[in-house]
Description:
Layout (H helix, E strand, L loop, with lengths): L15 E10 L6 H12 L9 H27 L6 H20 L4 E9 L4 H10 L2 E8 L6 H16 L6 E4 L7 H18 L4 E7 L3 H5 L4 H16 L6 E6 L12 H10 L4 E5 L8 H17 L4 E4 L7 H13 L9 H17 L5
Helix pairs in contact: 1-2, 3-11, 6-8, 6-11, 9-10
Amino acid sequence: MSFAPEPTFQHDSLPKIGIVLVNLGTPDAPTTDAVRRYLREFLSDPRVIEIPPLVWKPLLHGVILRTRPRASAAKYAMIWRDDGSPLRVYTERQAQLLQGLLGEQLRTPIVVRHAMRYGNPPIGKVLAALQAERCERVLVLPLYPQYAASTTATALDKVFEFYARTRNVPELRTVKHFHDHPSYIRTLADSIRAFWLRQGRPDKLLMSFHGLPRFSLDRGDPYHCECHKTARLLAQELGLEADQWTLTFQSRFGRAEWLQPYTAATLEALGKQGVGRTDVVCPGFVSDCLETLEEIGIEGKQTFLQAGGREFHTIACLNDQPAWIAALADIARDHLHGWIDRDRAILEAAAQQAAQRARTLGASR
Length: 365
């Protein structure tokens, strides 16, 4: 096994802490070819599709990648921004804003970057860039509030895969989840309250989480339980009674049973029951994306209104709201204890002394 080349070491450079915000990913463009490339990578992940390869690969390459990209590209085109994919734009902004905020709050030098599990920028490339910037400690923070093997775990797989090929491995920490973090719950609740202050309150608040196959729960994945805990804590923070909110799961794929109740079926039922106004929030997503803007904001709205509902609203994800960046900083700091307790001036002096000692010993660089 060969290891990747290490960046040139500078004795007088200041060691830094690197933070990587990891999100799912997005196609590079709302085109059939770009979506096909993205889906090929995404649907080839054995953590995402737990079907034996001999069964799955012919179906993926012979049917799905021939038919689904065109339809998905049309959906992406409906939500695409002038500056690109909403998921990419907001994830990039979150990293930039978190860098600025932590730079003000902490004395230790911090480098914050974003990466995508599928698509660009890839996790390995971002970790290599942190090495080049002499980040000797790295915190990986997947932007999935609730842990699932098909999201958080597969992102960490890529992180460990990169360091398996690295000679000089940094100190490494990872964030498993933040589904019940007080700052996350409070920020979600405040965002919903602010929306209701502008638009009034609904008859029903629907909390829609991304779905997973039912067998994931049976095999020990904690995702289902963590979604329920997030929903319960959020309802408590908002002071909602049991009949004022409900939890559902969206984005079902294939014929197998998925986690229930299903979002689409629930919206149809609410419309038929004569529920006048329904608001939908997606607490499993911290950035608006295809699933929130198109699946909920367009398809979900149509389902509810055609079934007899009167008024439908989607509540935006936390995106780049200042309160969310502050909450993200709280989550990051909780995992940085012991790494951020030294004064920058002390670090700089130590770096200069190390450089001087190296020169004394005859080091060439």
